[in-house]
Amino acid sequence: MAVLDPYTVPLTRATAAHLLRRATFGPTPAEITALVGQTAAQAVQSLITNGNYNPPPPVELDENQPGAGEPFLDKPFNGGRNFQFGYAIKYWWLGIMSQQTGAPALLDKLTMFWQNHFVTTRTVVDDYRFVDRYLRLLRNNALGNFRSLVIAVSKDPAMLRFLNGNENEAGSPNENYARELQELFTVGAVDFAGTKNYTEEDVKAAARILTGWNYTNFWTEGSTSFETTFTVSRHDTTDKLFSSHYNNTRITGRSTATAGDQELTDLVAMLLAHPQTARFICRKLYRWYVNPHVTQAIEDTVIVPLALFFASPANDFAIQPVVVKLLTSQHFFEAANRGCIVKSPAELIVGSIRFFGQPIPDMTTDYVAFGKLLDFMQWRMDQLQMNTLDQPTVFGYEPYYQTGYSKNWMNTTTIAMRNEFTDALIWRWLEVKPGYNMGIDVLAWATSLQADFNNVPSATNPSGTPAITCETILAAFIADLFATDLFQRQKDFLIDTIMMNSLPRTSWGFEWNAYRTALITNSGELSWRQNSVTWRLQNLMRYTLRLAEYHVF
Amino acid sequence: MTRRDFLAASTAFTVPVMLNGFGLKAMTRQSALVQSLMQSGAVNTDRVLVIVYLNGGNDGLNTVIPLDQLPTYNTLRSPIALPENSLLRLQGTDKMAFHPAMTGMRNLYNDGRLTVINSVSYPNPDQSHFRSTDIWMTAANADVSLTTGWAGRYLEDRFPGYPVGFPNEQMEDPLAIQIGYLTSTALLGSQQSMGVAINDPEAFYQLVGAGEPTSPNDIPGGDAGTLISFIRLQQALAVGYAGEIKNAFDAGQTLGTYPLENMNNSLAEQLKIVARLIHGGLKTKIFFVALGGFDTHSGQIVNSPVTGPHADLLGKVSDALYAFQEDLRLQGTQDRVVGMTFSDFGRRANANASNGTDHGVAAPQFVFGSSVRHQVIGTNPNLSDLIESYGGNKDVKMQIDFRRIYADLLNDWFETGRAKADNLLLHNFPTISLFSDVCETLTSGPWNSPTTWTVGRVPMSGEKIRVNAGHVVTLSDVVSVRSAQVQGTIRYGAGGKIRITG
């Protein structure tokens, strides 16, 4: 398993950035710096250890509501706030992904993988407590054991609702969950060669095994708890026989109070024993983390060995070792695997918020500002076809399964919407709170690059510090920004055509120094001098973020 | 003289007068429309197809209800069965009726602007949403996986090389437009989607950066380079098409009356944009619109069998299609636009215990527009002859392979020719005479057998028939038809006779 052998070269800025872009929603420059010199194994271990399993719970975000700023999950069910609390949970999760106060962790990127795998949606589940429990189940077990996770998800109240498991009973089966459990959650519909992995009869047999489950207190006003129940009288107690795809397994029908659990355990054991299950999961992880383009060679040299490892008796479907093996492999760090995925809206939006150091207001103490920023982010993601916790179908977001994979994020409409988002970073029209407009302060950024700002060269001060050059500014603006390097012609284009609008580059020095002088002397020219340099810097950054290169990672 | 004949015959381009409000922009540009109309074999370049995707698998048996089998229908789906007195009766038939929410589609049917195609599916049906939708969109056999869409293949054949070199003089508008944010598999060509997605023509123009300089075209190698080129191409297309789409949108008008925006009928909103773009002269060949929510496993009815989510959905489809057709009629464009619905699959014939229906097999689909020539293709599903499976589950059997609809759309609507249609669909699919008023024989057989005829049913007295060469039709009853053409043989049994009504 050569290509899965560990990558042992100490991380450079480029390889550290690659790891962080893939394992998280995108790094800050400081996070990249912190990983340089570490081995991949050390870096991935820290990304695991840094996971915060006890973040503060979501709060009421509307300042006009009773209990504003307070957690609501510990209170009785409040139907009147069901919709808003559901959104508060979305914002809570997006907020965790976006904050930059703690050390970077891979937990939520992996949680999103599982959420897009074991899909349920806020819209259909429709009880905010169910959504919360489901999301925490995935988050707490994202690095745990796949077998336990499949079993737990199968009984999770949100999933029972989403795929009608609660309506599946002896004599009148509802096959929805039984089908998706096989097609989407475990074995997959077909193998890599396109051969079917199970039959319609297998769907029906699995549905019978899964009869008898339900949940309590859905949307029950004032209720303080809810749980999964199993009712043996609703359970199909006969034996269930599966096809040759599952070695003609017969699962014994049970009729005691634990029948549901026993048969579910048998069912999951059978599904996981199917050789395609481990491959299906590993292939999907590979597409998530490494490259959506899975060739026959990749199937043979990466997916198959990784799946063997995943399903090996020693590993027994533990997830963490598989993620570690993949993210620390030589193959992962190959240059060919950089820039080969189109950024999802999460990677674009959360990634930009993080990269450009836009602070996430404290959810508990500064909840109004928090809500405002997260509202903006959530709405953009929704427009770009990635509504958090609200996939369009049980298959997940289209670009993770549809032909073309991540290319599907990009079409003429989403390009326009992506431009609208990156433009917002430039124009800074969103006031998160007084004194904090979301976006990039390009003028402050350029100013920080200028040594000796107040020592402006002139006829009377020939030893003044020269103006920063266009090249210096561009180099700073694009440092760590792209997964691939820009060509010199592109850099020249950005400077000459976009920033300088075909004026000679030396004009920049005059304009910048004039602005320095105007600022120091607070002259009457300050306003337009400042506008003219700001306009160039904004044009430069705005166009840079519209480059195709910014949309791959 | 039809408008097309006029255009083909005319050398003086007095077209704008003829079109009266339609496509002034297109005409003043010596547009591709006029140019290609003048080229031989391309007289139908102004024909448009609108594909309406009902996402999730529509419950066919509660859409078109077999009046002739109501007792069986009621037994199969007692909790959700529509009461007989609620059903919408159709002119000229006492065998089938529509869901009470479908008044608009009932009107279209009665006007001869809507064809019901019964029991549409494909051999070896798949009940996975994903796979079955893929089969519908790619027109693949159930055991074959294809990576191009059926409509995409047509467009790629018609406009080779796309998207390189597009937009251009001959085709300055998008080949296909999907209203929304994503493009569907049906529009996939071999390299990329043949369609563009737009949500709001105005905002689109503002945001794509029309008029801005373009970056040098250097690309890195490998998969990253492939993606970067792909994105740049999308950017260029967006810019290239933004102005054309906006112009058409501005030039077009909404003449019909659509459901109010607060009705949340997103299908109507999408079709309203489509109609306006058509009216504004956009030369796009295929429009794709969608409405979701048809995966009604549970609670498809609420309070009564005629209310609830499924009724709401059918009401939206019906209102939207009717408003769209009326808009096109008022525009004078109805003769060059045809639409079709499709859905993942039908739903079970029997209801489940949750007032819903699970994934099934065959279901009726609709083709709409003034060009359709028959109100019904195929016969009612036989509810006493269903596919049975474990748990007493029963599914409707297929009568019409969906690819026969595609074959007629390609061959008769887009006039690709028979060989090309077969080629694009990878097989030879016989016509269902969607656009022909003649019911032809498909094979030798008894007159009274539905399978003898292209229309999948016995010809009606007002219809023309043709017995094709080599076919032998046996007839032992007295039948009435409008006209009969016999290239093959009719073998008359005792009492067999054809009465020509003329």
From TrEMBL, chain A:
InterPro entries: DUF1800. It comes from the Bacteria. This is DUF1800 domain-containing protein. It comes from Fibrella forsythiae. The lineage of its organism: Bacteria, Pseudomonadati, Bacteroidota, Cytophagia, Cytophagales.
UniProtKB/TrEMBL annotation, chain B:
InterPro entries: DUF1501. It comes from the Bacteria. PANTHER family: BLL7424 PROTEIN (PTHR43737), DUF1501 DOMAIN-CONTAINING PROTEIN (PTHR43737:SF1). This is DUF1501 domain-containing protein.
